[in-house]
């Protein structure tokens, strides 16, 4: 039985892209589009979640993910409860399950959780009451589904049909929950080719098992790609010795004016942020017309509004 979908196929929790179907994914992207005013291109205000309460439970530091979830809830007219975990009972030894039970007792309808342990969102979803939905805002090395959804929304908005696109994911694939979710989403949407590019030390074991083409050389991997998805180096999750000394990583895998010339002339650049200028990407490339990095942030609000709306809709039926 699916933990994420109801027997009728409606979204019950959002935990991973793996396990979703194409219909559900497209439904989220299509609904996100409806939250943009067609004339002003601004995100509209809606009362779809009026009277509902959303709890943001972040056990890891976050700026844009947490802010966009909070803003998405407010745009839907929900009540927002932001828990400061560092000062909460969790820091005094309370278990995750007891923390969630207390949130349930406050009559919250949606719990957004980010946690350093892979599987934490699944654990919470398995233990919440039937009327509560869980959104995974990133768990360990495992998954970050809403980030992948906003990435797909951004690519579709700028480049259209996925079946025509060669997509390269560059950098620290090994530690990236974003990359895993992106790969699942690209497969669902039928991307023409998915490549991962990085040093062996930053790629997962048996990378071909992900259904991707693997490149250790950036100059070969970027040839004729239509979309370049850069990743942040997850140095907080690395053991020593995984990165070349000095600025060798930037010289070998940084997206620069020279390396960008190898891709399609109109290649789209996305990055989940925060970006490290001069480490993963040349500063003026990050600000170039090819980059949709800030548009991703805007799109993240609309996509998260869509996810919350569908979760609430399923629970009300």
TrEMBL record:
Protein name: Aspartate carbamoyltransferase
Domain of life: Bacteria
Residue ranges of domain Aspartate/ornithine carbamoyltransferase carbamoyl-P binding in the record: 12-156
EC main group: transferase
Record PROSITE patterns: CARBAMOYLTRANSFERASE (PS00097)
Gene Ontology BP, a term: amino acid metabolic process
Annotated pathway: Pyrimidine metabolism; UMP biosynthesis via de novo pathway; (S)-dihydroorotate from bicarbonate: step 2/3
Family the UniProt entry places it in: Belongs to the aspartate/ornithine carbamoyltransferase superfamily. ATCase family.
Residues in coiled coil: none
Entry keywords, A to Z: Pyrimidine biosynthesis, Transferase
Catalysis: reaction(s): carbamoyl phosphate + L-aspartate = N-carbamoyl-L-aspartate + phosphate + H(+)
NCBIfam families named among the record's database cross-references: asp_carb_tr (TIGR00670), PRK00856.1 (NF002032)
Primary role: Catalyzes the condensation of carbamoyl phosphate and aspartate to form carbamoyl aspartate and inorganic phosphate, the committed step in the de novo pyrimidine nucleotide biosynthesis pathway.
EC numbers for this chain: 2.1.3.2
InterPro entries: Asp/Orn_carbamoyltranf_P-bd, Asp/Orn_carbamoylTrfase, Asp/Orn_carbamoylTrfase_sf, Asp_carbamoyltransf, Asp_carbamoyltransf_Asp/Orn-bd
Positions of the Aspartate/ornithine carbamoyltransferase Asp/Orn-binding domain: 164-310
Binding of carbamoyl phosphate, residues: 64-65, 114, 144, 147, 273-274
Residues annotated for L-aspartate binding in this entry: 92, 177, 232
GO cellular component, one term: cytosol
Organism phylogeny: Bacteria, Pseudomonadati, Pseudomonadota, Gammaproteobacteria, Candidatus Berkiellales
């Amino acid at each position: 039985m699916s933990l994420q979908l109801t027997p009728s196929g409606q979204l019950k929790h959002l935990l991973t892209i793996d396990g979703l179907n194409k219909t559900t994914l497209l439904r989220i992207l299509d609904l996100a589009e409806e939250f943009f005013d067609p004339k002003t291109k601004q995100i509209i205000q809606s009362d779809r979640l009026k009277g509902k309460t959303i709890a943001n439970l972040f056990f890891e530091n976050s700026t844009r993910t947490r802010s966009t979830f909070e803003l998405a809830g407010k745009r839907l007219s929900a009540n927002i409860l932001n828990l400061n975990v560092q000062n909460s009972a969790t820091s005094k030894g309370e278990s995750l399950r007891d923390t969630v039970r207390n949130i349930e007792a406050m009559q919250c309808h949606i719990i957004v959780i980010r946690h350093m342990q892979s599987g934490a969102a699944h654990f919470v979803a398995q233990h919440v009451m039937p009327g509560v939905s869980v959104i995974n805002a990133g768990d360990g090395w495992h998954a970050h589904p809403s980030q992948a959804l906003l990435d797909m929304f951004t690519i579709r908005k700028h480049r259209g049909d996925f079946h025509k696109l060669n997509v390269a994911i560059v950098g620290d694939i090994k530690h990236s929950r974003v990359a895993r979710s992106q790969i699942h989403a690209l497969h669902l949407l039928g991307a023409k080719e998915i490549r991962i590019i990085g040093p062996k030390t930053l790629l997962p074991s048996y990378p071909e098992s992900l259904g991707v083409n693997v490149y250790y050389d950036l100059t070969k991997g970027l040839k004729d790609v239509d979309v370049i998805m850069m990743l942040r180096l997850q140095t907080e999750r690395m053991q020593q010795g995984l990165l070349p000394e000095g600025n060798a990583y930037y010289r070998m895998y940084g997206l620069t004016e020279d390396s960008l010339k190898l891709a399609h002339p109109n290649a789209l650049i996305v990055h989940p942020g925060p970006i490290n200028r001069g480490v993963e990407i040349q500063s003026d490339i990050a600000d170039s017309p090819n980059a949709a990095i800030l548009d991703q942030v805007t799109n993240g609000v609309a996509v998260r509004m869509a996810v919350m709306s569908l979760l609430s809709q399923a629970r009300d039926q």
